[in-house]
Task: inverse folding
């Protein structure tokens, strides 16, 4: 079995001896890069350096992974000891190379070098001089090859594969509390905390240091418990879908193969397993070789409707789990029951195990989520760097101040380093997550579950909302309106009552047999469309046992038969002993690519088999003989689809009398689905969900663009878009179509209903009344012929119809490339790719544990997207508010400390405790408790912290804080009774008027700014609804006012403040007059936010000064710079 140069999904290309890039086959972009390193003298120097500096360099390297590789020397991959893997998001991972002894195979040496990256094993292939995944070692199998080996693996083959692939297990590691503690503590945050505590202990802030130690321990324990619970929850989810024993066919040397029982963990690709009759959890991905299975895949897709899986057909094409998913049973899914042959087992072949399975891939997407590239997080790092710069400036001032006073070296060091602990708040990272945690809790209460909390903030920036149609905008179920039979190339009158049709007609029998329905616990279930059509026929369905197969060539088929009153009409008396029933011998399941399904059936009253096909009218037309199609086929189709009906075409073909059951099981699908006879149309209604139109209206009012990405007919999709308000009554819709000739690269735009070509149409990009609709075939051809036209198409297209699942994901990805923040709402079945690709993917699923998308909604309509956007905006604004508040809190304390240093004073131990633990903590935590408003506003919240529109008001607030502190000190200096602290004191004096003024004024500032940043509308509820915050702010204000005006003696002593005495009226009045400063500060702080920060004039002024001529978003530039389709003028007819 030779190596493959390509592996399904990936192509590995060696760029240099020490670097290898892993390319995505589908998107032709680098998935990750592999770089080789080995230990050298640098490693030894690093170890010595760490030892000398008490491990501090190690903490820095652990906190900044990109620096880790500096310890090693780059080398060729073939001699590498350490592997650096950098993914396409720039995230680096250092991995130790390992060696394994395996059987000599495929030109591999006995000792194989390999590494594991995110649960994928990469083995060094010395001949090709590159790393290959284990799936590449064994060549991909054709369908015929999978069907040929019916004896299973022998022991030697099994041993080889087990050595290569390893055990079949998806393990979510639950780390011990000790391991979690070490990982938690060994980072820069805790190093900074330890540094701060040591500094405070040296400075004799004993109580404060002890409180911080206790809080840090409490925080660490809470974090450890939370992390452990999350790991246990995911571990339990994985473990819940495990089975105990599996029956495997094992080839014996000289005898028939044996069926043995083994543990699921011992399965390897290539194993032949025997599926039990019912209630079985699949331990790995398998392809069905015989029989049929009914499977519930809700844990993977969110789709709760059972799916019928059929046996793999023969063919020379390569097997692909996605292409052949109707024949593939996926790990973790629940097999409800199997369909038996007479006395035979149902066999399936293992194709993927462990983390290579679909379930494994989904678990990996949770363990290693795609980083959310929100600008806010990058900007917050820039702002922290700014705070460090401020800290360095303050440290320089302290150095100058204390050196000029000839202070002790200890005091100089302690006071200087203390500035860093003040300016950069250690609690900042934790505080920024408060808004997300509250939003996640509120979403959970209304039935929306999130497996990636950082994406909640991304919801606040959504610019375009994409929707699937069936089951999302419309109901799952379909109502049969009527059927239109065809005869002699003419459509007959519509029929609403099936009893008026002859049950012996091919049209009725096609409706009764061409489906994938099954019975589970005596209840008919399956696709809603199939259910609706079958119910319309009023026929009955039976699934006989294995002993009732004699009349059907050893097959136990699904049997359908008309109601009893119809049997009497179609059965002759002399033939009454032969019951009128039809056996379904073979199913060709619905294919998203082919957009149709077929069955092979046989009636006991006929001597030949019949093939029935139903599907998209556009596809069925190409499969039918032209002489059987009505002349007005396209006109009728356009008439019904334009009125919003779901139209299904039906056709049939009589098979030869020599066509046997074995032929039916082996025949290829394309042989059946050609030269068909057209039978008629099924006209169905797919009513809108009640909530759809109001939600679309809400999104439009909020300036969020809405589009539909569906697999349905393009005219039906347009009609639904008009009904739900995605298209308004006065909007023009143009259908873009490509020529049916593969060589012809011309395209045409037609206005729906008017049938006018582009010669009479000018599409105005600036107009919101012009929309384009495109189907999947045209999309693919346009991408191939004119890829530069895709961005132009995307900014004006509202309807994407007849799109296959991979095309849906393509649309989402291309929209993201135009700088749209994209949301996608779907039912989780055919939309999995698009849901995972979107910034905000929402699966409408009753299963809370579904991992089909980052968000899962038990609200089975699109109103969930409004809730998500409201919570996202609320969480994002809250994150901004808390960040600004924490930054200003640090700077306020920074100003206070610098001024007190200048005046030979300090804040006391209890004062620090009161500010940091009582005021700041209580306000920062309660700021995030404000929920979202009831309505979406047209403006999106800001996404950048460092944008001038945000920075200017922030700088004004900082300036106001500094000026009011200086103003209060100036007022103190003007008092005739005031005596400043002498310059010749050797120790800072805490109990002083300078301390009292700055402590109380700064306390008011913390409360004022927290209140200012707790503003409500338009992204949060009004401040008065946040009862805990209001209570905290009012209580703290009253308490600080009491401390300022007339504290009792014991409280004054505890807080190290100057007490008030009754006989000092002048000093008492000074305390009262000091309230002027917080009052004025409140007015100015509110004014800055109300008249500067929240106003558009500031943004316009900044744009004018910057002379911004073009929007920063690509889609906005496209809308501005082009009023027509330049590419269309050259390729349209």
Result:
């Amino acid at each position: 079995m030779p190596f493959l140069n390509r592996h399904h999904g990936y192509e590995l290309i060696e760029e240099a001896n020490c670097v290898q890039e892993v390319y995505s086959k589908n998107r032709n972009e680098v998935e990750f890069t592999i770089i080789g390193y080995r230990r050298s003298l640098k490693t030894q120097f690093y170890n010595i350096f760490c030892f000398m500096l008490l491990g501090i360099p190690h903490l820095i390297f652990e906190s900044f992974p990109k620096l880790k590789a500096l310890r090693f020397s780059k080398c060729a991959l073939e001699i590498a000891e350490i592997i650096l893997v950098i993914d396409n998001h720039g995230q680096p991972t250092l991995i130790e190379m390992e060696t394994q002894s395996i059987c000599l195979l495929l030109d591999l040496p006995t000792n194989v070098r390999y590494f594991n990256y995110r649960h994928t094993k990469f083995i060094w292939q010395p001949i090709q001089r590159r790393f290959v995944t284990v799936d590449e070692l064994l060549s991909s199998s054709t369908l015929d090859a999978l069907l040929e080996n019916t004896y299973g693996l022998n022991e030697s083959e099994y041993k080889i594969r087990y050595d290569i692939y390893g055990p079949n297990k998806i393990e979510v590691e639950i780390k011990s509390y000790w391991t979690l503690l070490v990982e938690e503590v060994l980072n820069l945050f805790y190093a900074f905390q330890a540094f701060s505590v040591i500094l405070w202990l040296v400075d004799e802030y004993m109580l404060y240091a002890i409180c911080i130690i206790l809080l840090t321990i409490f925080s660490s324990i809470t974090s450890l418990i939370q992390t452990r619970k999350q790991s246990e929850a995911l571990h339990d989810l994985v473990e819940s879908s495990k089975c105990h024993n599996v029956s495997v066919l094992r080839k014996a040397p000289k005898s028939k193969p044996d069926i043995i029982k083994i543990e699921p963990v011992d399965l390897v690709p290539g194993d032949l397993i025997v599926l039990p009759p019912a209630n079985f959890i699949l331990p790995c991905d398998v392809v069905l070789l015989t029989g049929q299975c009914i499977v519930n895949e809700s844990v993977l897709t969110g789709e709760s409707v059972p799916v019928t899986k059929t046996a793999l057909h023969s063919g020379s094409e390569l097997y692909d789990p996605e292409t052949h998913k109707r024949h593939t049973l996926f790990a973790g899914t629940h097999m409800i029951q199997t369909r038996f042959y007479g006395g035979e087992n149902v066999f399936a072949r293992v194709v993927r195990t462990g983390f290579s399975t679909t379930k494994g891939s989904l678990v990996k997407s949770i363990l290693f989520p795609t980083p959310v590239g929100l600008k806010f997080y990058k900007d917050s790092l820039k702002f922290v760097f700014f705070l460090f710069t401020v800290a360095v400036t303050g440290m320089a001032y302290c150095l100058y101040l204390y050196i000029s006073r000839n202070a002790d070296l200890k005091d100089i060091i302690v006071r200087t380093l203390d500035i860093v602990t003040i300016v950069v708040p250690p609690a900042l990272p934790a505080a920024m997550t408060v808004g997300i945690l509250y939003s996640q809790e509120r979403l959970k209460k209304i039935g929306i579950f999130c497996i990636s909390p950082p994406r909640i903030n991304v919801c606040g920036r959504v610019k375009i909302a994409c929707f699937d149609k069936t089951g999302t905008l419309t109901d799952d179920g379909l109502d049969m309106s009527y059927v239109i039979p065809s005869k002699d190339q003419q459509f007959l009158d519509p029929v609403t009552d099936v009893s008026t049709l002859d049950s012996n007609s091919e049209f009725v029998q096609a409706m009764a047999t061409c489906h994938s329905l099954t019975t589970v616990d005596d209840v008919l279930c399956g696709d809603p469309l199939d259910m609706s059509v079958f119910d319309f026929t009023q026929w009955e369905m039976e699934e006989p046992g294995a002993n009732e197969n004699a009349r059907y060539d050893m097959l136990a088929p699904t049997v359908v038969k008309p109601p009893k009153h119809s049997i009497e009409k179609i059965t002759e008396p002399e033939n009454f002993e032969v019951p009128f029933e039809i056996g379904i011998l073979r199913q060709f399941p619905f294919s998203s690519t082919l957009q149709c399904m077929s069955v092979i059936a046989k009636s006991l009253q006929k001597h030949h088999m019949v093939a029935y096909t139903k599907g998209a009218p556009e596809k069925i037309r190409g499969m039918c003989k032209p002489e059987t199609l009505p002349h007005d086929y396209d006109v009728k189709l356009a008439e019904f689809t334009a009125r919003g009906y779901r139209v299904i075409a039906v056709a049939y073909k009589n098979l030869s009398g020599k066509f046997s059951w074995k032929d039916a099981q082996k025949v290829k699908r394309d042989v059946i689905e050609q030269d068909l006879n057209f039978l008629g149309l099924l006209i169905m209604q797919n009513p809108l969900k009640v909530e759809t139109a109001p939600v679309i209206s809400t999104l439009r009012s909020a300036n969020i663009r809405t589009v539909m990405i569906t697999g349905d007919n393009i005219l039906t999709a347009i009609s639904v878009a008009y009904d739900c308000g995605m298209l308004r009554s006065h909007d023009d819709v143009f259908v873009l179509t490509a020529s049916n000739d593969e060589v012809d690269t011309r395209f045409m735009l037609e206005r729906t209903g008017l049938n006018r070509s582009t010669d009479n149409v000018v599409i105005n990009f600036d107009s919101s009344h012009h929309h384009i609709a495109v189907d999947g075939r045209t999309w693919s051809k346009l991408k191939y012929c004119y890829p530069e036209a895709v961005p132009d198409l995307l900014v004006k297209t509202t309807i994407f119809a007849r799109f296959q699942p991979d095309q849906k994901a393509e649309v989402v990805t291309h929209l993201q490339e135009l700088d749209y923040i994209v949301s996608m709402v779907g039912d989780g079945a055919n939309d999995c790719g698009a849901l995972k690709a979107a910034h905000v993917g929402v699966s409408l699923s009753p299963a809370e544990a579904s991992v089909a998308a980052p968000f899962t909604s038990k609200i089975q309509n699109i109103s969930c997207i409004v809730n998500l956007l409201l919570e996202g905006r609320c969480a994002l604004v809250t994150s901004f508010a808390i960040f600004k508040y924490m930054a200003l809190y640090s700077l306020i304390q920074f100003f206070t400390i610098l001024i007190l240093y200048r005046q030979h004073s300090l804040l006391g131990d209890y004062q620090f405790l009161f500010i940091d633990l009582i005021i700041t903590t209580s306000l920062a935590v309660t700021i995030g408790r404000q929920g979202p408003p009831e309505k979406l506003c047209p403006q999106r919240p800001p996404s950048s912290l460092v944008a001038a529109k945000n920075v200017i008001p922030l700088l004004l607030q900082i300036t106001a804080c500094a000026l009011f502190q200086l103003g209060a000190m100036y007022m103190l200096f003007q008092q005739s009774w005031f005596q400043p602290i002498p310059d010749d004191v050797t120790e800072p004096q805490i109990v002083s008027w300078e301390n009292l003024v700055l402590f109380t004024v700064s306390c008011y500032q913390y409360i004022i700014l927290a209140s200012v940043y707790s503003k409500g509308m338009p992204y949060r509820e009004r401040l008065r609804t946040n009862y805990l915050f209001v209570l905290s702010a009012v209580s703290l204000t009253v308490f600080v006012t009491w401390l300022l005006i007339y504290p009792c003696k014991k409280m004054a002593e505890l807080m190290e403040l100057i007490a008030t005495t009754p006989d000092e009226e002048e000093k008492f009045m000074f305390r009262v007059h000091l309230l002027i400063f917080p009052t004025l500060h409140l007015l100015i702080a509110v004014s800055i936010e109300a008249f500067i920060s929240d106003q558009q004039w500031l943004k316009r002024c900044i744009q004018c000064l910057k002379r911004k001529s073009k929007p920063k978003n690509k889609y906005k530039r496209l809308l501005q710079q082009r009023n027509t389709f330049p590419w269309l003028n050259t390729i349209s007819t």
Q: What stands out?
A: The chain is about 40% helix and 20% strand. Residues 6-139 form one domain.
